[in-house]
Amino acid sequence: MEQVQRRPWRRWVVLVLMIVGFVLGGIFVPVQPEITVAAERLIEEPLFNLGPLGPFYLVNTIPTLVVTLVLLGIIAYFANRSLKKSAETDLVPRGIGNVVEAILEILYNLTEGSAGAKWAKAIFPWFATILIYVLFANLLKLIPGFESIGVLHQVPTGHPASGGVLMPGEVENGYILAPFFRGISVDLNFTAALALIAVVAIQYIGFRAQGAGYLSKFFNTRRMFKVPFFGAMDFLVGLLELISELSKILSFAFRLFGNMFAGIVLVAIVAGLLGKISILPAMIMMFELFVGVIQAFVFGMLTMVFMAQATQGHGEEHAEAH
Amino acid sequence: MEGNILDAMRYVGAGLAMIGAAGAGVGIGLSVQGALTGMARNPDTYGNLLTNMILGIAFSEAIAIYCLVIAFLMLFKVV
Fold first, then answer.
1. Is B72 part of the contact surface with chain A (CB cutoff 8 Å)?
2. pLDDT value, residue A156
3. Do A301 and B76 make contact, defined as CB atoms within 8 angstroms?
4. Is A6 part of a structural domain of the chain?
5. How many Å apart are CA A294 and CA A307, to the nearest integer?
6. In this predicted model, what pLDDT tens digit does every residue of A16-46 receive, in sequence order?
7. Which chain A residues have a beta carbon less than 8 Å from that of B73?
8. Shortest alpha-carbon distance between residue A9 and chain B (Å)
9. Pairwise CB contact (< 8 Å): B75 & A166
10. Residue A172 in 3-state DSSP?
11. Is A33 within 8 Å of A147 (Cβ atoms)?
12. pLDDT of residue B5
């Protein structure tokens, strides 16, 4: 309460900004951008050819990727500098270094709680990197200007019935809007690449913890000769384990992509419901903030839990439980 | 009425595929209900229950994601 009393003009700033937003939205009517599953091309011609992989297009997730990486790099640089400075003086972290240290400490304690002290050091970098990266990717797309400012393209033939267009954008004089920036987690290429990295890293941690014995999780021949019937059953279950390992890639990639993509579709639909200057999309954006944080947490947390599972062998697990 | 009957059936199929999301909704609701009951009985376990609840939600959500994949495959003529 006291803080509000001290600076009462803050709420008026918010109100004035809201009114300015309403008025500007009425004068410069925004054009509804096209919503497609694939990222839109900023330049119609391919940049260069990758041989058998096909042509390489400049799509609108690449600028966002650059922005995300640069932002993360800047934060890392300043946090590093701040922590070095505090290490030289009095060992008390201040400013951005303090914030980063607090966040990483919470994450490390979480890792230690689920994976145990022995493997926490190996698992933590994967978990924290994926979580922070996906968090930034999810939150950056909420900044105003993303998915709304862009270049105009000539309407392709057969629009909007041509495959790939989920919600047709507004056509103005035969041109259609393709935004400059599109959140990277709304591109299946990004989420699939991250899922592949996560699943490969899980196998790597498993092999590091158990050596070649890790393979017995998939090709389980341990009881094959002692009890033939149950041994064969174990073998089949192991093969199922192999399939579930592959489906992890699918569910990792599509969980993030599906949630984020549903977000932009929802914002577009709600924006279309009540005309151009409705305030409802702002509410949906708040929901998007929530979903973005939760999905980043889930992606990192699942990677960490699967890695913790991979470090425990089949036999050990039973021994520890009793 | 004009247009391709195959296109129409693609949209109908995608809609039908998403019925599976109902099951995921029930699953998520059940896991949240269990976690909330536990939290109400024993508020000290809040943090531990929350992380495990979110994990459980992620697993039941995976089923809805498979439905979404099938719907996308139908919508965009992948197969």
1. yes
2. 63
3. no
4. no
5. 20
6. 887 887 777 777 766 677 777 777 777 777 7
7. none
8. 38
9. yes
10. strand
11. yes
12. 85
* Mean pLDDT of chain B, nearest integer: 87
For A261, the domain range is: 32-43+57-314
Q: Is there a domain that residue A320 lies in?
A: no
A6 band by pLDDT with thresholds 50, 70 and 90: low
Find which of B49, B51, B77 to mutate to test the A interface (most A CBs within 10 Å of its CB).
B51
pTM for this entry = 0.82
Interchain contact A161–B (C-beta under 8 A): yes
Q: Determine, yes or no, domain membership for A7.
A: no
Q: Return d(Cα A153, Cα A59) in angstroms, integer.
A: 13
Structure tokens at B24: 């995921």
Q: Which CATH class is domain B22-74?
A: mainly alpha
Contact A254 B65 (CB under 8 A): yes
Q: Is A297 on the interface with B (CB under 8 A)?
A: yes
Query: Per the structure, how many domains does chain A have?
Result: 1
Q: Is A38 on the interface with B (CB under 8 A)?
A: no
Question: At A130, which helix (H) or strand (E)?
Answer: helix A117-140
A178-213: pLDDT as tens digits: 788 888 888 888 999 999 999 999 999 999 988 888
CB contact set of B18 (below 8 Å; sequence gap of 6+): B67, B68, B71
Indicate the helix (H) or strand (E) that contains A35: strand A35-36
Each as own residue / partner, the long-range contacts of residues A218-221 (CB below 8 Å, 24 or more positions apart, any chain) are A218/A242, A218/A245, A220/A314
User: Could you report the per-residue pLDDT of A205-249, keeping only the tens digit for each?
Assistant: 999 988 888 888 888 777 777 777 888 888 888 888 888 888 899
